[in-house]
Amino acid sequence: MEITSVRVHKVSVREGSKLRAYAEVTIDDAVAIHGIKVLQGDNGLYLGMPSDKTKHDIAHPIKQEVRTMFEKAIFDKYEETEDVAEKEEE
After folding, report:
1. What's the rounded Cα separation, in Å, for the pair 45 and 28?
2. What does CATH list as the number for 3-83?
3. Nearest-angstrom CA–CA distance, 76 and 55
4. pLDDT tens-digit profile of 45-86?
5. What letter would DSSP give residue 25?
6. Which DSSP string do the residues of 35-79 spell out, in sequence order?
7. b/e map of 40-60 (b: 16 or more CB within 10 Å)?
């Protein structure tokens, strides 16, 4: 399994909100996962997998090595992506 594409859409940071961005991941150019949240916690960034209104995950990695692969790919792209606030200032 290979992550073949990652898109990150940063959001304006609102007071009291942990949300920093939404991510989309494509696996093997065959399966897309939308609605992954990049969240800021006390110990750094973490991922929130897509969930329904009852807060049950719709998709999530089963193995830790796959979760780590997702985190690295998404966090790397997050760091490359311009901040929404920077764009609004221009």
Report:
1. 25
2. 3.30.1120.40
3. 26
4. 999 999 888 878 888 899 999 999 999 999 999 999 877 656
5. E
6. EEEEEEETTEEEEE--B-TT--BSS--SSHHHHHHHHHHHHHHHH
7. eeeeebebbeeeeeeeeeeeb
Cα–Cα distance measured from residue 8 to residue 74, given in angstroms and rounded to the nearest whole number: 7
Q: Which amino acid is at 75?
A: F
DSSP-assigned letter for residue 83: P
Residue 17 in tokens: 């909100």
46-54 long-range Cβ contacts below 8 angstroms, 24+ apart? 46/71, 47/23, 47/71, 47/74
**Whether the model pTM is above 0.90:** no
* Cα distance between residue 4 and residue 16, in whole Å: 33
Domain boundaries, the chain: 3-83
